[in-house]
Description:
This protein is mainly alpha-helical. The chain has nine helices and six strands. It binds zinc ion.
Amino acid sequence: MFIGHFAVAFGAKKAAPKVSLGTLIVAAAFLDVVWPVMVLLGVESFRIVPGFTAVNPLDFTYYPWSHSLLMTMVWSVAFGLVYFAVSGDRAGAVCVGLVVASHWVLDFISHIPDMPLYPGGSVKLGLGLWRSIPATFAVEGILFAAGVWMYVHATRARDRIGSNGWWAYVALLLALYIPGPWASRPPSENIVAIFGIIALLIFGPWAYWIDRHRETAG
Ligand SMILES: [Zn+2]
């Protein structure tokens, strides 16, 4: 899933008002932060197979360290503990941990059965939403709309950056997401991984910036 992960981060702001939107974005995308690093290190692997699913050409052949259920739990607890150590915000730490874990659930819905339960395990899960472009757009679109709606009601802009910066963020996500199924074949697996890291280096800091220009509503 792609914008669905952002939707969870947006929606979580209401439950965790003290946590920066930037931290929530990094939490929601965290497994996809670990994944490209593991791929570039040669620990995990995937292949580009045009037409592999209707939505994207990625065949995730081996990614238990970033995307198994067991490792997701480990990453979730670790992320929550680090957040608690830095902030002292216990409720926020529980929320960010759950947001990290939500990634697995959303990927489980999207991916074909390629998500392992634990490293070395042979059972692989996935509901395969990506087999259908309309179903993917419907599910992810509803999630995204709900997340945006929750965020704009949980917070309000303090200035122009808080408003325009936020809506530009939403618009850029949609502009990257919607053409995805019709995009040309990526040049290589490593380019996909590098693009993933670059995307996070843009959308992470940008969300911290937005957060400083918005405040809790009500
Ligand atoms: Zn993922």
